[in-house]
Design goal:
Number of helices: 10
Number of domains: 2
Strand content: 15-25%
Distance between the termini: 57 Å
Shape: globular
Helix content: 25-40%
Structural class: alpha/beta
Strand order of the largest sheet: 5-6-8-9-10-7
CATH superfamily of the largest domain: NIF3 (NGG1p interacting factor 3)-like
CATH architecture of the largest domain: 3-Layer(aba) Sandwich
Number of strands: 11
Order of helices and strands: HEEHEHEHHEEHEEHEHEHHE
Length: about 260
């Protein structure tokens, strides 16, 4: 007899590797839209619930959308279909598509953007620092910040902004996907010479570079989207192992929320 997967089945599989109770207090990860007991045959995994992603979910006939960033982040007082969030919420509900978001709870795991990029860079001795949002890895050979930045940019398909000396020799790189430039003092304490993250603010750029440290700004989207492929593989492998006939798709949509390099 074929086993039937539900939203709860998928929720529990995510919870097993990234407990929802571990999310930050400001976060809103979890089961956000739908009925927890609804059957699931097809799943779409994406970084964000954009209009393009929701259209893709409808076209792929999925019952569940899993995103990293919660669509419902703050408390809402109205659902206005003329607004961006309201129109997306109504479209999901009308399409019968449920939504689970795994945000900061996923950032704390080996499936995080930092860990995923470390593996793509073939770093050695990949490890989680005392700051659980930071992952560190040793370069196979010493590289200057300029050369390393170009290598990372090619991997992520973007042009990095580097704060600090391009001639700084890097042996250990710390990585935190998304917006985590405030983690640079912990990265220094952990023995890294550079931190790759997705957003770098002006005062942190100055402070870090004055500390003979290098900050790489790789873009929020680019430093987090690699984790979605790993989450897709994790879920598909676990569902296959548990003998559920469920297809997990990785979104093919790419967005340009950070603009274009002109």
């Amino acid at each position: 007899m074929q086993k039937i997967a539900t939203n709860l089945t998928i929720y529990n599989l995510i919870n097993d590797i990234a407990p929802f109770e571990s999310q930050e207090s400001y976060d809103n990860s979890g089961f956000l839209i739908g009925s927890i007991n609804d059957e699931v045959k097809n799943i779409l995994v994406a970084l964000d619930a954009t209009p393009q992603v929701i259209t893709e979910a409808i076209n792929k006939e999925v019952q569940l959308l899993i995103t990293h960033h919660p669509l419902l982040f703050h408390a809402i007082r109205e659902i206005n279909t003329e607004g961006y969030d309201g129109s997306l919420l109504v479209q999901l509900i009308n399409s019968g598509i449920s939504l689970i978001s795994a945000h900061t709870n996923l950032d704390l795991t080996s499936l995080s953007g930092g860990a995923a990029i470390a593996r793509k860079l073939s770093l050695q001795n990949i490890r989680q620092s005392m700051d659980p949002f930071l992952f560190l890895g040793d370069l196979p050979k010493v590289m200057t910040a300029g050369a390393l930045g170009k290598l990372i940019g090619e991997l992520l398909g973007t042009r990095l902004r580097c704060y600090g000396s391009l001639d700084k020799e890097i042996t250990t790189l710390s990585i935190a996907g998304g917006a985590y430039d405030l983690g640079y003092p912990k990265a220094i304490s952990a023995g890294a010479q550079a931190l790759l993250t997705g957003e770098v603010r002006y005062h942190h750029a100055i402070a870090a570079s004055q500390s003979d440290f290098v900050l790489f700004d790789g873009g929020h989207y680019q430093t987090e989207v690699p984790m979605m492929g790993e989450l897709t593989d994790y879920l598909q492998n676990k569902l296959h192992e548990l003998q559920y006939s469920v297809k997990v798709y990785l979104s093919e949509c790419h967005h340009h929320s950070e603009g274009y390099t002109l």
